[in-house]
């Protein structure tokens, strides 16, 4: 069995890094049209790289569709899956559209991973089409478990929500990290110290939250002295409606995912 990737960009590289760290036992090959990226993937991970997929895959192979949604129809044209299991990580593209692009195959699992897969700290939402067997689900789970946690979804509709929360989510965290770094610089720290302080604060808070049985709101209270500094900062965040802004951002992502599904070929 070979695990093929169609597209070797950011997300494919993150998954391959996770697979390598977890010593994934099967051969991995990447079809990537850009020669520079092929060379980088081969040098970094030792995977086989190809300009395009072989003329026909084997029934035991697994094909990961990892091109941008708008490139998917063109990339899939002429691909003969040979009955292989297809895993699509593309945002928005429904099983029905993917099946149509791949000559009617129903053996499809949709996956919404995230880039922390690269350090085995990812979380993936998975949804199995009706044509995928229990064994297919296990194989998809085995690929993504090597990159972090897996959450199986009951309906395809839930893919929009998981895309908005954990698929796009790392970008929200990097946005906030960057904002705290910028704030630290305006308070007089060098860029290096500002980066270290922001990162250590996020990491420490996440580690604490992960190891605590308290809700996030209780942990927040434990930092906040009456009339103190945190109280002043939180009052400012509330005035700026930051919690609502985060909700609006996640809903914008889910809305965009639905739009992409509606306009899929
Ligand atoms: N970047 C992220 O955080 C996440 C991305 N995704 C999904 O992953 C997919 C890929 O996204 P990225 O890796 O960010 O994009 P990317 O642009 O970094 O990678 C796509 C790669 O596909 C290659 N490609 C395009 N057409 C091709 C073809 N016909 N044959 C071979 N290679 C071809 C491109 O050269 C490029 O390297 C998208 O569908 C996206 O929705 C899902 C979850 C998270
Ligand atoms: O921005 C996107 O469309 C992709 C899907 C989730 C993260 N990146």
Radius of gyration: 21 Å
Q: Report the portion of residues in β strands.
A: 5-15%
Low-confidence stretches: none
Q: Estimate the global geometry from the Cα principal axes.
A: elongated
Biggest sheet, open or closed, and with what strands and sense?
8 strands, mixed
How do you describe this structure in short?
By secondary structure, the protein is α/β, with parallel strands linked by helices. It has 11 helices and 8 strands. The protein has an 8-stranded mixed β-sheet with strand order 3-2-1-4-5-6-7-8, with helices on both faces.
Written description of the protein model:
Belongs to the pyrroline-5-carboxylate reductase family. Keywords: Amino-acid biosynthesis, Cytoplasm, NADP, Oxidoreductase, Proline biosynthesis. It comes from Conchiformibius kuhniae. It is found in: Cytoplasm. This protein starts with a strand and ends with a helix. It is an alpha/beta fold and 265 residues long. It has an 8-stranded mixed sheet with strand order 3-2-1-4-5-6-7-8, sandwiched between helices. The protein is built from 11 helices and 8 strands. It is 51% helix and 14% strand. It has 2 domains: 155 residues, Rossmann fold (3-Layer(aba) Sandwich), CATH 3.40.50; 89 residues, Orthogonal Bundle (ProC C-terminal domain-like fold). It binds 1,4-dihydronicotinamide adenine dinucleotide and (2S)-3,4-dihydro-2H-pyrrole-2-carboxylic acid (A1CAB). (2S)-3,4-dihydro-2H-pyrrole-2-carboxylic acid binds next to helix 6.
């Amino acid at each position: 069995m070979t695990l093929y990737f169609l597209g070797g960009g950011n997300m494919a590289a993150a998954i391959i890094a996770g697979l390598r760290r977890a010593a994934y036992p099967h051969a991995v090959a990447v079809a990537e049209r850009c020669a520079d990226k092929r060379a980088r993937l081969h040098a970094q991970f030792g995977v086989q790289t190809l300009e395009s997929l072989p003329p026909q895959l084997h029934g035991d192979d697994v094909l990961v569709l990892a091109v941008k949604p708008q490139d998917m129809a063109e990339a899939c044209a002429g691909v003969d899956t040979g009955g292989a299991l297809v895993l699509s990580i593309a945002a928005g593209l429904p099983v029905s559209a993917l099946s149509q692009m791949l000559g009617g195959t129903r053996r499809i699992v949709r996956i919404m991973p995230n880039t922390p897969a690269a350090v085995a700290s990812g979380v993936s939402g998975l949804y199995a089409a009706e044509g995928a067997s229990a064994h297919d689900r296990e194989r998809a789970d085995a690929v993504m478990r090597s990159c972090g946690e897996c959450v199986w979804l009951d309906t395809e509709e839930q893919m929009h929500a998981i895309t908005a929360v954990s698929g796009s989510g790392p970008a929200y965290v990097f946005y906030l990290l960057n904002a705290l770094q910028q704030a630290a610089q305006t308070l007089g720290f060098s860029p290096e110290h500002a980066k270290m302080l922001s990162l250590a604060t996020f990491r420490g808070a996440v580690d604490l939250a992960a190891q605590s049985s308290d809700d996030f709101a209780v942990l927040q209270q434990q930092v906040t002295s009456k009339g103190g500094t945190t109280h002043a900062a939180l009052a400012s965040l509330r005035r700026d409606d930051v919690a609502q802004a985060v909700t609006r951002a996640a809903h914008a992502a889910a809305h965009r995912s639905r739009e992409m599904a509606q306009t899929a070929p």
